[in-house]
TrEMBL record:
Belongs to the PNP/UDP phosphorylase family. This is Uridine phosphorylase. One of its GO terms (molecular function) is uridine phosphorylase activity. Its EC number is 2.4.2.3. It catalyses: uridine + phosphate = alpha-D-ribose 1-phosphate + uracil. One of its GO terms (cellular component) is cytosol. Coiled coil: none annotated. It comes from Petrotoga miotherma DSM 10691. It comes from the Bacteria. The keyword Transferase applies. Residues 29-217 form the Nucleoside phosphorylase domain.
Length: 262
């Protein structure tokens, strides 16, 4: 399994991609990759002239412009196995930078609902990357993308937190220790796709970053004997305004990446 050579083209480069139903020329060099298809609407509302390219299996793609720079948005679905298919297919047709905007759960006491998290690395329990490379291969954001996101957040005067994120695969795990273990290791947040994004992008020779919005705090919800697996109402204004800020940070970061030659 680990003899796969990712320097070799996939052979699928010049065709319509099976799952996302997009082909060469359909997506911009920079693609924003939320898990939730509902977040696509919020992102394209900030683009100029967004055009729907495709929708298949809940994987929706739009391409538009931000301050004159082409940007695409593709939803990936939940979990590493679905998301890694989308990342691979986007790269097959020319994506050079992938940035995930996604919900996360906090894993430290001080991570509040609505906090913006910009992780620099992930623990790899995403359920897909283990089939690409051995477990000791790192899942790290591309420094250029990470630093642009950080400096965009600072220049917009938006608060954010950073650290290591845990990408996991079992949303409804009932064991408090499932969550508490990573809190003790000072991991700040958890999601289900970012480590597969970092690994696939690294193997395919493209760049990647991740910005998260905290929807719940699994540390506080699991620090007694039982786990509270609920997620508070996501229609609250704090979640809406933080999502809007995370999109603004991402778009500002993308503009800076373009202006510095991607
Ligand atoms: O909000 P999205 O991007 O879907 O991300 C998070 O939300 C889903 C779980 O509710 C998982 O996909 C997780 O990673
Ligand atoms: O509770 C949550 C929220 C977002 N992402 C997760 O993995 N869990």
């Amino acid at each position: 399994m680990f003899k796969q050579d990712f320097r070799i083209p996939t052979g699928l480069e010049n065709q319509i991609q099976y799952h996302i139903q997009c082909g060469p020329g359909d997506v911009a060099p920079v693609v924003i990759v939320p898990g939730d298809q509902g977040r696509v609407e919020s992102i394209i509302s900030k683009l100029h002239d967004p055009k729907k390219v495709s929708e298949n299996r809940g994987l929706i793609t739009y391409t538009g412009y931000y301050e004159g720079y082409p940007v695409s948005v593709t939803s990936t679905g939940m979990g590493g196995p679905s998301a890694s298919i989308v990342y691979e297919e986007l790269i097959n047709i020319g994506a050079k930078i992938l940035i995930r905007i996604g919900s996360v759960a906090g894993l430290q006491e001080e991570i509040e609902e609505g906090d913006i998290i910009i992780p620099h690395a992930c623990v790899r329990d995403d359920g897909a990357s283990q089939y690409y490379v051995p477990q000791n291969f790192p899942a790290v954001a591309s420094p250029e993308v990470y630093l642009r996101l950080i400096s965009a957040a600072k220049s917009l005067n938006f608060d954010f937190k950073t650290g290591i994120n845990w990408s996991h695969s079992c949303f409804y795990n009932r064991d408090p220790e499932y969550f508490q273990r990573w809190s003790r290791y000072r991991v700040v947040s958890m999601d289900m796709e970012a480590s597969s994004l970092f690994v696939v992008s690294s193997l395919r020779g493209v760049k990647a970053g991740f910005i998260g919005i905290c929807y719940a705090n699994r540390f506080k919800q699991s620090n007694r004997d039982k786990v509270d697996l609920s997620v508070p109402d996501t229609n609250r204004s704090i979640i809406k305004s933080s999502t809007s800020k995370a999109i603004d940070i991402t778009l500002r970061g993308i503009k800076d990446l373009y202006q510095n030659g991607l």
